[in-house]
Automatic annotation (TrEMBL):
Main subcellular localisation: cytoplasm
Binding site for [4Fe-4S] cluster: C44, C74, C77, C83
Cofactor note: Binds 1 [4Fe-4S] cluster per subunit. Following nitrosylation of the [4Fe-4S] cluster binds 1 [4Fe-8(NO)] cluster per subunit.
Coiled coil: none
Annotated family: Belongs to the WhiB family.
This protein's encoding gene: whiB
Region (Disordered): 1-32
Alphabetical list of Pfam families matching this protein: Whib (PF02467)
Name of the protein described by the UniProt record: Transcriptional regulator WhiB
Domain 4Fe-4S Wbl-type positions: 43-107
UniProt GO MF annotations: 4 iron, 4 sulfur cluster binding; dinitrosyl-iron complex binding; DNA binding; metal ion binding; protein-disulfide reductase [NAD(P)H] activity
Function according to Swiss-Prot or TrEMBL: Acts as a transcriptional regulator. Probably redox-responsive. The apo- but not holo-form probably binds DNA.
Keyword Ligase: no
GO biological process: cell redox homeostasis; negative regulation of DNA-templated transcription
Length: 114
């Protein structure tokens, strides 16, 4: 069992081990070649990737608008906490992950470290 920065606990056990359900939910899923992964439940999986990781050269005003739209998608996502945990664990430096942009994740890391 592992406690993550967002307070989510998961053990990496097969999906049905968490709930006993035959069909896994987003917090049951673990990335394996044989079964569903948490990101298969992500609200962003069919969205434009440029919303979540704005390409270089985009004016700051447009970048902030795209990030705002990405965060709106994240707000509806059933795996937002898992996504944020992944970004924190991998020290993602760019893009919107789990509803937080890079600056917000840096601030969160500082708060968690203190």
């Amino acid at each position: 069992m592992r406690m993550t920065a967002t307070g989510t606990e998961f053990s990496g056990a097969p999906p049905s081990a968490h709930t006993g359900r035959a069909t896994p939910g987003p917090y049951d899923a673990v990335p394996t070649p044989r079964g569903p992964s948490w990101w298969e439940f992500a609200a962003c999986r069919t969205a434009d990737a440029d919303l979540f990781c704005v390409p270089d050269g985009v004016p700051l005003r447009r970048k902030r608008e795209r990030e705002r739209r990405a965060k709106a998608i994240c707000a509806t996502c059933p795996v937002r906490a898992r996504c944020l945990d992944e970004a924190l664990a991998r020290d993602e430096q760019f893009g919107v992950w789990g509803g937080k942009d890079a600056r917000e994740r840096r601030e969160l890391r500082r708060r968690l470290a203190s």
